[in-house]
Amino acid sequence: MGKLIVISGPSGAGKGTIVQELLEIYKENKQKVHLSVSATSRSPREGEIDGINYYFISEQEFLEKVKDGDFLEYNMYGTGKYYGTLKSHVLKYLSDEYDVILEIDINGYKQVIGNYQDAIGIFVTTPSLEVLEQRLRDRGTETEENIKKRLATAKEEMANKNIYPYIIINEDGKVREAAQKIYDIIKSN
Ligand code: 5GP
Fold first, then answer.
1. Do residues 105 and 75 lie in contact, with contact meaning Cβ atoms separated by under 8 Å?
2. Which domains does the chain have, with CATH numbers?
3. CA quadruple 122, 126, 130, 135: dihedral positive or negative?
4. What pLDDT digit, counting tens, does each position of 79-106 carry?
5. CB-based pocket (< 6 A), ligand 1
6. 132 CA distance to ligand 1 centroid (A)?
7. pTM for the complete prediction?
8. β-pairing, 82-86 with 71-76?
9. How many Å apart are CA 31 and CA 99, to the nearest integer?
10. Distances 189 to 16, 73, 140, 170, 183 between C-alpha atoms, Å
11. Atom 17, ligand 1: which residue's CA is nearest?
Protein backbone atom coordinates (compact mmCIF):
# COMPACT_ATOMS: atom_id res chain seq x y z
CA MET A 1 0.00 0.00 0.00
CA GLY A 2 1.14 3.56 -0.70
CA LYS A 3 0.99 6.24 1.97
CA LEU A 4 -1.92 8.63 2.36
CA ILE A 5 -0.73 12.20 2.92
CA VAL A 6 -2.98 15.05 3.96
CA ILE A 7 -1.73 18.59 3.41
CA SER A 8 -3.82 21.32 5.00
CA GLY A 9 -3.35 24.94 5.86
CA PRO A 10 -5.11 28.26 5.52
CA SER A 11 -6.11 29.61 2.15
CA GLY A 12 -3.17 31.64 0.82
CA ALA A 13 -0.47 29.72 2.74
CA GLY A 14 1.01 28.46 -0.52
CA LYS A 15 -0.04 24.80 -0.25
CA GLY A 16 -0.59 24.51 -3.99
CA THR A 17 2.91 25.73 -4.86
CA ILE A 18 4.52 23.46 -2.27
CA VAL A 19 2.56 20.46 -3.51
CA GLN A 20 3.74 21.09 -7.10
CA GLU A 21 7.33 21.20 -5.84
CA LEU A 22 6.75 18.03 -3.83
CA LEU A 23 5.57 16.25 -7.01
CA GLU A 24 8.84 17.35 -8.67
CA ILE A 25 10.86 15.83 -5.82
CA TYR A 26 8.94 12.55 -6.20
CA LYS A 27 9.73 12.61 -9.91
CA GLU A 28 13.44 13.26 -9.34
CA ASN A 29 13.54 10.33 -6.92
CA LYS A 30 11.54 8.12 -9.33
CA GLN A 31 8.88 7.49 -6.68
CA LYS A 32 5.20 6.84 -7.41
CA VAL A 33 2.81 9.60 -6.37
CA HIS A 34 -0.72 10.68 -7.19
CA LEU A 35 -2.26 14.07 -6.41
CA SER A 36 -5.97 13.64 -5.80
CA VAL A 37 -8.21 16.07 -7.71
CA SER A 38 -11.15 17.12 -5.56
CA ALA A 39 -14.66 18.01 -6.63
CA THR A 40 -16.03 21.42 -5.67
CA SER A 41 -19.16 23.49 -6.12
CA ARG A 42 -17.19 26.76 -6.27
CA SER A 43 -16.57 28.44 -9.64
CA PRO A 44 -13.20 28.16 -11.35
CA ARG A 45 -10.70 31.00 -10.89
CA GLU A 46 -9.10 32.45 -13.97
CA GLY A 47 -6.66 29.90 -15.35
CA GLU A 48 -8.08 26.94 -13.43
CA ILE A 49 -8.91 23.91 -15.54
CA ASP A 50 -11.71 21.41 -14.96
CA GLY A 51 -10.27 17.98 -14.16
CA ILE A 52 -6.83 19.41 -13.36
CA ASN A 53 -7.32 21.84 -10.48
CA TYR A 54 -10.74 20.53 -9.47
CA TYR A 55 -13.80 18.89 -10.94
CA PHE A 56 -16.07 21.92 -11.01
CA ILE A 57 -19.62 20.67 -10.53
CA SER A 58 -22.93 22.18 -9.43
CA GLU A 59 -24.10 21.98 -5.83
CA GLN A 60 -26.83 19.58 -6.96
CA GLU A 61 -24.34 17.24 -8.62
CA PHE A 62 -22.15 17.43 -5.53
CA LEU A 63 -25.01 16.39 -3.26
CA GLU A 64 -25.87 13.51 -5.60
CA LYS A 65 -22.32 12.23 -5.27
CA VAL A 66 -22.63 12.50 -1.49
CA LYS A 67 -25.78 10.36 -1.69
CA ASP A 68 -24.04 7.83 -3.95
CA GLY A 69 -21.19 7.46 -1.43
CA ASP A 70 -18.57 8.68 -3.93
CA PHE A 71 -16.63 10.73 -1.37
CA LEU A 72 -13.94 9.63 1.05
CA GLU A 73 -14.59 12.90 2.88
CA TYR A 74 -16.30 16.18 2.09
CA ASN A 75 -17.00 19.49 3.72
CA MET A 76 -18.76 22.80 3.29
CA TYR A 77 -16.02 25.42 3.57
CA GLY A 78 -16.32 28.84 5.25
CA THR A 79 -17.28 30.37 1.89
CA GLY A 80 -20.42 28.18 1.74
CA LYS A 81 -19.04 26.02 -1.09
CA TYR A 82 -18.62 22.25 -1.01
CA TYR A 83 -15.32 20.42 -1.48
CA GLY A 84 -14.75 16.66 -1.43
CA THR A 85 -12.19 13.91 -2.08
CA LEU A 86 -13.39 11.28 -4.54
CA LYS A 87 -12.79 7.66 -3.50
CA SER A 88 -11.90 6.97 -7.15
CA HIS A 89 -8.87 9.27 -6.77
CA VAL A 90 -7.50 7.50 -3.71
CA LEU A 91 -8.21 3.82 -3.09
CA LYS A 92 -7.00 2.27 -6.35
CA TYR A 93 -3.79 4.34 -6.27
CA LEU A 94 -2.99 3.35 -2.69
CA SER A 95 -3.35 -0.32 -3.52
CA ASP A 96 -1.14 0.19 -6.59
CA GLU A 97 1.64 1.45 -4.24
CA TYR A 98 1.26 5.13 -5.10
CA ASP A 99 1.60 7.69 -2.31
CA VAL A 100 -1.58 9.77 -2.54
CA ILE A 101 -1.63 13.46 -1.65
CA LEU A 102 -4.81 15.17 -0.51
CA GLU A 103 -4.84 18.95 -0.29
CA ILE A 104 -7.86 19.41 1.94
CA ASP A 105 -9.06 21.45 4.90
CA ILE A 106 -8.99 20.61 8.59
CA ASN A 107 -12.52 19.15 8.65
CA GLY A 108 -11.55 16.83 5.83
CA TYR A 109 -8.43 15.77 7.73
CA LYS A 110 -10.51 14.87 10.79
CA GLN A 111 -12.71 12.63 8.64
CA VAL A 112 -9.75 10.99 6.91
CA ILE A 113 -7.85 10.28 10.13
CA GLY A 114 -11.01 8.67 11.57
CA ASN A 115 -10.84 6.03 8.81
CA TYR A 116 -7.13 5.90 8.02
CA GLN A 117 -5.14 6.17 11.23
CA ASP A 118 -1.91 5.84 9.26
CA ALA A 119 -2.55 8.96 7.20
CA ILE A 120 0.26 11.51 7.57
CA GLY A 121 -1.11 14.95 8.49
CA ILE A 122 0.92 18.03 7.56
CA PHE A 123 -0.19 21.60 8.24
CA VAL A 124 1.37 24.31 6.05
CA THR A 125 1.18 27.83 7.36
CA THR A 126 2.70 31.29 6.96
CA PRO A 127 4.98 32.99 9.54
CA SER A 128 1.98 35.12 10.66
CA LEU A 129 -1.64 35.95 9.95
CA GLU A 130 -0.54 39.32 8.50
CA VAL A 131 1.63 37.60 5.90
CA LEU A 132 -1.29 35.36 5.04
CA GLU A 133 -3.63 38.31 4.52
CA GLN A 134 -1.05 40.01 2.32
CA ARG A 135 -0.62 36.89 0.17
CA LEU A 136 -4.37 36.48 -0.22
CA ARG A 137 -4.69 40.10 -1.32
CA ASP A 138 -1.67 39.91 -3.66
CA ARG A 139 -3.18 36.86 -5.36
CA GLY A 140 -6.03 39.13 -6.46
CA THR A 141 -8.45 36.27 -7.12
CA GLU A 142 -10.98 36.89 -4.35
CA THR A 143 -13.62 39.50 -3.59
CA GLU A 144 -13.29 41.49 -0.35
CA GLU A 145 -16.16 39.51 1.17
CA ASN A 146 -14.45 36.25 0.25
CA ILE A 147 -11.13 37.41 1.68
CA LYS A 148 -12.85 38.15 5.01
CA LYS A 149 -14.48 34.69 5.09
CA ARG A 150 -11.16 33.04 4.18
CA LEU A 151 -9.31 34.96 6.90
CA ALA A 152 -11.92 34.02 9.52
CA THR A 153 -11.58 30.36 8.49
CA ALA A 154 -7.78 30.71 8.53
CA LYS A 155 -7.82 31.97 12.13
CA GLU A 156 -9.91 29.00 13.17
CA GLU A 157 -7.62 26.57 11.32
CA MET A 158 -4.48 28.09 12.81
CA ALA A 159 -5.96 27.77 16.30
CA ASN A 160 -6.47 24.04 15.68
CA LYS A 161 -3.23 23.27 13.90
CA ASN A 162 -1.93 21.16 16.77
CA ILE A 163 -4.09 18.22 15.72
CA TYR A 164 -1.50 17.77 12.93
CA PRO A 165 1.64 15.83 13.84
CA TYR A 166 3.70 18.02 11.47
CA ILE A 167 3.63 21.79 10.98
CA ILE A 168 5.62 23.42 8.17
CA ILE A 169 6.13 27.18 7.94
CA ASN A 170 6.20 28.39 4.36
CA GLU A 171 8.59 31.32 4.33
CA ASP A 172 8.78 33.59 1.29
CA GLY A 173 11.11 32.23 -1.37
CA LYS A 174 11.69 28.91 0.42
CA VAL A 175 9.27 26.65 -1.38
CA ARG A 176 11.89 24.03 -2.22
CA GLU A 177 13.00 23.74 1.41
CA ALA A 178 9.41 23.36 2.60
CA ALA A 179 8.66 20.69 -0.02
CA GLN A 180 11.88 18.81 0.80
CA LYS A 181 10.95 18.80 4.51
CA ILE A 182 7.59 17.28 3.64
CA TYR A 183 9.20 14.66 1.40
CA ASP A 184 11.61 13.69 4.20
CA ILE A 185 8.72 13.43 6.69
CA ILE A 186 6.80 11.13 4.32
CA LYS A 187 9.79 8.91 3.68
CA SER A 188 10.62 8.63 7.40
CA ASN A 189 7.08 7.43 8.22
P1 5GP B 1 -9.76 26.97 -2.57
O2 5GP B 1 -11.12 27.54 -2.86
O3 5GP B 1 -8.81 28.03 -2.08
O4 5GP B 1 -9.23 26.17 -3.75
O5 5GP B 1 -9.90 25.92 -1.39
C6 5GP B 1 -10.47 26.29 -0.17
C7 5GP B 1 -10.16 25.24 0.90
O8 5GP B 1 -10.76 23.98 0.58
C9 5GP B 1 -8.66 24.96 1.05
O10 5GP B 1 -8.35 24.92 2.43
C11 5GP B 1 -8.50 23.59 0.42
O12 5GP B 1 -7.41 22.88 0.96
C13 5GP B 1 -9.82 22.95 0.78
N14 5GP B 1 -10.15 21.80 -0.05
C15 5GP B 1 -9.84 21.59 -1.35
N16 5GP B 1 -10.28 20.39 -1.76
C17 5GP B 1 -10.86 19.81 -0.67
C18 5GP B 1 -11.49 18.54 -0.45
O19 5GP B 1 -11.59 17.69 -1.31
N20 5GP B 1 -11.98 18.32 0.79
C21 5GP B 1 -11.88 19.22 1.81
N22 5GP B 1 -12.37 18.88 3.00
N23 5GP B 1 -11.29 20.42 1.64
C24 5GP B 1 -10.79 20.71 0.42
1. yes
2. 4-188 (3.40.50.300)
3. negative
4. 999 999 999 999 999 999 999 999 999 9
5. 11, 38, 42, 73, 75, 77, 83-85, 103-105, 107-108
6. 16
7. 0.94
8. antiparallel
9. 8
10. 22, 23, 37, 21, 10
11. 104
